[in-house]
Amino acid sequence: MGTRTAIVGVGQTYHTSKRKDVNGQELINEAVRRALEDADLTLKDIDAIVIGNMDHFEAINCVDCWSVDGSGAFMKPIMKVTTGGSTGGTLGSCAYYHVASGLFDVVMAIGWEKNSESDTQAAISTCADPILERDFFGGAIGPNAAEYAMYMKQYGASEEDAAMVAVRDHNNALNNPYAHLRKHITVEDVMNSPVLCWPIKLLDSCPRSDGACAVIYAAEGRAEKIASRPAWVHASAVSHDYVYFGDYDWEAMPTLEATASRVYKRAGIVNPLKEIDVMELYLPFSTCGVIWMEHMWVCGRGESPRLIREGVFDMDGELPVNPSGGVLSTNPIGATALIRIGEAALQIMNKAGSRQVPNVNTAMATAFGSCYWFEATILRSGKP
Amino acid sequence: MDKVAIIGVGQTRYERGNTKSFAELVYEVTRKALDDAGLELDNIDNVVTTTNDFYDGRTIACMAVAEASGSYGRDATNVEGDGTLSAFYGLMRTLSGVYDATIVTTHCKMSEGNPRKLFNQAFDPIYDRILGMDAISSSALQARAYMDRYGVTEEQCAMVSVKNHANARNNPYAHVALEITIDDVMKSPMLAEPIKRLDISPISDGACAIILATEERARKSAKKPVWVRGVAHCTDAYRLGERDLTYSAALETAAKKAYKMAGIRNPFKQIDVAEVYDAFSYMELMWYEGLGFCDRGKGGKLVESGKTQMGGELPVNPSGGVLSAHPVQVAGLARIAEAVLQLRGEAGGRQVPGAKTALAHGITGICGQTHCVWVLSNEEA
Amino acid sequence: MAGASQTGQQLAKEGSRMENETTFEIQEKDGLLVHQGVIRVPYTWAAGEVASRFYAGLREKKVLGLRCPACKVVLVPPKKVCHRCFSDLTDWVEVGDEGVLQTFTVVHYSEPDLHPVEAPFAYGIIKLDGADTGMTHLIGEADIKGLKAGMRLKAVFRHQPQGNYLDIAYFKPIEEANHG
To answer: Which domain range does residue A214 map to?
Structure first.
């Protein structure tokens, strides 16, 4: 069996729309230094590094090699992993498997993006198959909008239900000094914001941010010495089932269900609502915060709007979701899902400051990207 | 390290202008690797693909090959870099105890892009990218530095080209197999001094897959398992002006770590066959030195001695190496696949008789900034 | 070599801002279709404070580097973090505009979209006086058949600096300049 592995340090930049004062290497370096500081380690303690971003967002080939001046990978092992929006989840699991393999004791994952430096929509449109789908694929918003329109009709949900998710995440961000968008909003603000693709409005949608995040993983034996309360990795799961957007069943969300089922099974979770204390979810649109809870088996089909209205996922609710403010407040794409893991770990480590949920023993982080690919991680305060 | 074995390999023929799609190319090697291992997809629970958005000409390029690698219904992930690194990640996931059998795939259709422009994107956009350097011109700076420092001659580099192109004639997967002389190499057109047309690797398309398995799964496999005995990678400084271009410290570090894991003290004596990433002829000589096959600066003398030819003490690149087929990001995994064939005794006309321990090597980045070294054996630790 | 800086200027202008379009053309080969496309995405790259100051120096024909206090080396071109010891670098120094050629190559093939000058031309790595790292750059005003590692070269600054790497247009051999 593999080596037990825990997260022992988290660092991130103050995320914002444009970081003109630093280049990519320098941005990465800020996150790396904060993670090392958080874990009270030096670069010498790091045995290996994994890094990821999206190539066409910065146009730097072999980012792993280029990153050395910021990541600190000089004369160390470094590799790059990337899977689109879910890259941060892929990075977290890559660092975890580095340690779990028994080959490395302390490993750092780095996710970063400078979305301000390219035309991200132009770049992302090239992810569709060039022969079949690129001519007409127009980004992620259309399918999500259609999905929520159908959902409202079927289950009697409202645009306001989604708006409540947006309000929750945006207002939670007020407690997170690193969040990009930190402005108090109301349901009315969301409803009055410009419609991007009905029923999704501007305040239902994620921003584009410049930022980086670094998370340090350590092996049993080292982890307890580095952190007083390490966040132990209990399970990681991934589903990359489809490659054509046209093949996906938007209503059934098979990849999210498969990912959730697999990660719960590996972590021995039967009732996520009762057994998980906090979730950091990759919700690119507020509508996902309604529908996806059901596909993650948190509640039954059609029940999510009621739980949202009852405040179950609020900071003081039974299962707080996105205390950090989530993706709706911060979205440096290559880092976004790693921030979810880092924030979930901070909750376990009891280091989340004013966004801390009391008594967190089990936390879940997810990643979303590409052709509805999902990744999930379960962290706990106790060893696996 | 727990025991992990490679139990299946599959390669396409390497060529320029393959008309299959990425998915078709990858499916071909996925199927071949499964057949080779005597497995069905049901036996695989973990998938690692290898892509690069620049070379593949699409964002999130792993979307093109996930299905073809068998990702449906199982955990999948993706590495960007040489195939030796994807295989390393596959190894780590296998060692974690979560998975039994991992398939690692990688593909390349470099004929469909402009490799010089794409490689230029690896240079620093803030500083020297505007100079327009690519793999050939940057490697020429390294070749000159290395040859000047140690008195290695263009003829000695040419010997690598002659040897590897000749070896390729025994490899049905090779792209460029040639019967040439040192004189032919020396007279071939100068590209970037001292690198000539016959000193460089071709632009190749192709794919490769391997299957890694836990000890328990490996013991049930159809083919004799090839055990992973040591593996390590290491990265040098980014900028050429900050590196010692005459010697690869990163390769030395990676090799020493891999050798330590594998219990190898004298690599030249203990390794029976090596497949190294010779993107340019001079590189094979430099890699001899970094891998500890000879002392610093003695790579030229080593190839001259004939000891790295077929029939020599340590044949290097019996397959023809990267000089005879260079599908980028595939080439390192192809080195592993070739090493596996050697250790099974299935390498046909390029077989090194009785090979028990083999080395495979891959590089990523400008002038071999990152090196990954694998030591494989048909004998258990 | 006047052409070097001119072509360099054009490249800087065109290279940093491309148009956004994806186009397709379909070719048939043995009954199999091959689609052709171009991905054009505009990019900008923040240079950061360190590189911005380096380029400000070049405007005044000064080459600036950063000294690492721990490793006792001067890095040119400068960067914020020392890759060896991970120190934050703040100790600016001016280095010479002359230096020693470490290695070089003469390029004989042409790649017009990439190369700032027409082949044959030379690239080199030049360690400037007072610097401990080398700069990759173009070599101009030189007999490219007579290049040798160890030669001394001098920076030729671009007349109208633009804030990029070609504000040093190229390096030229010092001996030749003296004779010419």
So the answer is: 5-122+209-232
Give me the residue from A66, A127, A241 closest to B71, CB to CB: A241
Give the predicted TM-score (pTM) of the model: 0.95
Per-residue pLDDT of chain B (381 residues; tens, 9 = 90+): 899 999 999 999 999 999 899 999 999 999 999 999 999 999 999 999 999 999 998 888 898 999 999 999 999 999 999 999 999 999 999 999 999 999 999 999 999 889 999 999 999 999 999 999 999 999 999 999 999 999 999 999 999 999 999 999 999 999 999 999 999 999 999 999 999 999 999 999 999 999 999 999 999 988 999 999 999 999 999 999 999 999 999 999 999 999 999 999 999 999 999 999 999 999 999 999 999 999 999 999 999 999 999 999 999 999 999 999 999 999 999 999 999 999 999 999 999 999 999 999 999 999 999 999 999 999 998
Looking at domain B4-114+205-219, does it have CATH number 3.30.470.10?
no
Q: Give the whole-angstrom CA distance, residue A352 versus residue A346.
A: 5
> Is A340 within the bounds of a domain?
no
Q: Which residues of C98-125 are buried (b: 16+ CB within 10 A; e: fewer)?
A: bbbbbbbbbbbbebeebbbbeeebbbbb
What is the identity of the amino acid at B305? Answer: S
Q: Which tokens sit at B22? A: 């990425």
Q: Which amino acid is at B224?
A: K
Look up residue A194 and give its DSSP letter: P
Q: Retrieve residue A134's tokens.
A: 């690129």
Domain tally, chain C = 1
Contacts with B54 from chain A: Cβ below 8 Å: 55, 61
Q: Is C102 on the interface with B (CB under 8 A)?
A: yes
State which residue of chain C sits closest to B112, comparing Cα positions: C36
CA-based torsion, A181, A185, A188, A189: positive or negative: negative
Cβ contact A134–C37 (<8 Å): yes
Burial environment of residue B311 by CB neighbours within 10 A (0 to 12, 13 to 18, 19 or more): exposed
Torsion angle of alpha carbons B75, B76, B77, B78, nearest 10°?
170
